[in-house]
Amino acid sequence: MARMGGQRRLKALAAPAFWPVLRKEYKWTVKPRPGPHPMEYSLPLLLIVRDVLGYASTGREARKLIAEGHFKVDGRVRKDYKYPVGFMDVLEVVDTGEVYRFIPYPVKFFKLHEIPRDEALLKPVRIEDKTTVKGGHIQLNLHDGRNILVRVKDPRNPVEDVYKTMGTLLITLPEQEIKDYIPLEEGNIAIISGGRNVGRVGKIMNIQRGWGRRRSIVTLEDPSGNLFQTSLEYIFVIGRDKPIITLPEGAWR
Fold first, then answer.
1. Helix, strand or coil for residue 93?
2. Where are the alpha helices (DSSP H) in the chain?
3. What would the pLDDT profile of 86-136 be if each residue is shown by its tens digit?
4. Cβ(191)–Cβ(113) under 8 Å?
5. Which long-range contacts (CB under 8 A, 24 or more apart) does 214-221 make?
C-alpha cells in the first residue's frame, strides 16, 4: 500500500500500481489532495483527463481544461486537478455528454466504465458506520466521505432506522436523496473491491463472521456457477436479483 506521508509531492515509483504513469520516464507524478477517497483507491482528476481519457497531451493542458469546468464528479463541477476520483464516483464530460463510473476491474484493479446518461444521477454508496447524533437522529457514514442524516420522530422507537453497516444505499446526485437500500445478506449480488478477486461479481452464498471485517470470509457464486471467497472488507453489495448499476460486458449475465 502506498504511503502519502506529509510531503506535497509524490514520486512516480511510489504511486499505486494501477495508476497509468510512466515510472521509468518521469520521476514525479500528481499527488491527490486529501478528500473523499484514499490515494490507494482513487485517481487524480488530472491523470484521468490526460492519461485515461486522452483529452490532453500534457499536464498543463489538462489543468487548463479542468480549471475551465469541463468535468463533473458526482454531479458537481470540479476545478481542482488534484481532486481524487474514487470507487463508484460518476465522472461526466460536460461538453460531450460522456458519463463514466469508476469501478473495480479484474487485474487492472480499477477502470472508468462508460454508463448511460440516465444512470449518471444515481450512485451506490456503502454504509461504513452509523452514529446517533443530537435529537436521536441517525447519521450514516458512507464510503466516499459523505454523511447522510436520517431523521427520527421518536428516539425511543426509531422505526426509521432500518439501515445496517456494510449495506448499500442508492442515492441521487448531487441531492443525496435515498432511493433504495440493499442490505448485506445472502442471496444479494456484490462486486469485489480489492484482493485477488477484485472486479468479480457474484451472488453472496455464505457469510462467515470472524474478528472484524478483515477476518470475516464471504463465499460468492459467479454467473458460471463457480464459487470463490474474499474478505468481508472487499464486499460491496450492488443488487438483489440483478445489479443496480451498469457493469462491463460479461461481468454479469
1. strand
2. 45-47, 59-67
3. 999 999 999 999 999 999 998 888 889 999 999 999 999 999 999 999 988
4. no
5. 218/190, 220/190, 220/192
